[in-house]
Amino acid sequence: MNRVRHTNQFIRLARQLRGWRVGDLLPAQCPFCHAWPVWHQPGGICATCLVRYARQTPRCTCCALALPAPEMPCPSCAALPSPLQRCIAAVDYAYPWHQAVAAFKFAQQPAWAQAMSQLLLAQPDCHVLVEHCDWIVPVPLSAQRLRERGYNQAWELCRALAHRCDQTGKCLPYAITRHHVPQTQAKQSRQERLRRMHRMFALTSGNSTMWAGRRVLLVDDVMTTGATLFALAKTLQAAGASRVDALVFARTPFEG
Questions:
Q1: What are the pLDDT digits (tens) for 41-61?
Q2: Residue 8 domain flag
């Protein structure tokens, strides 16, 4: 009887540890302040850095721009109204998060998606958007950009969010294609980005009717001017989507 009991206990423990890596069982060093040790925090970020750099701030409900106070007019939406019904961001695209995004995006560190998804889901209404939408769509990369990076960081974040909310069946990673833009958008003004967004996205052949009356949730790592998300939202609305919302990990502060 003791052998059976011990065997059952071992099986239960094995099931609990299934999918865990050795690193998940060990303390980590904070990637920002290098404090040691850090246990069970998103991305190994220490509690002090989370309080300092990830505190919630008032944001525009339609473009996630940080505002000085709740209910204040959004200067970004005043200049260009957002086609998004709701947009949520976890942090500003500033120190130290720009380092994390760069590692996530360009340095082959897709594991950052786990910490970013946790921080996003800590925002008010984030769970609601994930659970109430019909489709979850990562902002696509062009085929050339995907070959260069080896993965789409927006899809990694999308997958992590959906998994944490048990909504993986809603994910559509290949439903929209993106044409290649030779010049990187990071060096362009907002007006230039908006002009280049024209006709950038296309619905995958054969699925044009699947958007009719649907609530679509877009996911991306960074929102700068909003040009990419706005163009994609308008493409989906033209295809019949009844509502388009967005989740972004980081939002660039308004520069006027």
A1: 788 899 899 999 998 999 999
A2: no
**Are residue 88 and residue 168 in the same domain, yes or no?**
yes
How many angstroms separate the Cα of 20 from the Cα of each of 8, 14, 36, 53?
Answer: 20, 10, 21, 28
**Tokens matching residue 151:** 């993965």
pLDDT of 90 > 70? The answer is yes
Residue 49 sits in the same domain as residue 104: no
Q: Tell how strand 86-92 and strand 215-223 pair up.
A: unpaired
Q: Are residues 38 and 99 in the same domain?
A: no
Check whether residue 36 and residue 73 sit in a common domain: no
Long-range contact set of residues 236-241: C-beta below 8 Å, sequence gap at least 24: 236/137, 236/211, 237/83, 239/203, 239/208, 239/211, 239/212, 240/209, 240/211, 240/212, 240/213, 240/214, 241/211, 241/212, 241/213, 241/214, 241/215, 241/216
With tokens 């106070």, the residue in question is 69
Number of domains present in the structure of the chain: 2
Alpha helices in 122-152 (DSSP H): 126-132, 143-149
Range of the domain at 30: 22-53
pTM: 0.84
Q: Tell me: do 95 and 199 sit in the same domain.
A: yes
How large is the average pLDDT for residues 132-154? 94
**Spatial contact of 80 and 60, defined as CB atoms under 8 Å apart:** no
Lowest mean pLDDT of 147-156, 195-204, 212-221, 239-248, name the range: 195-204
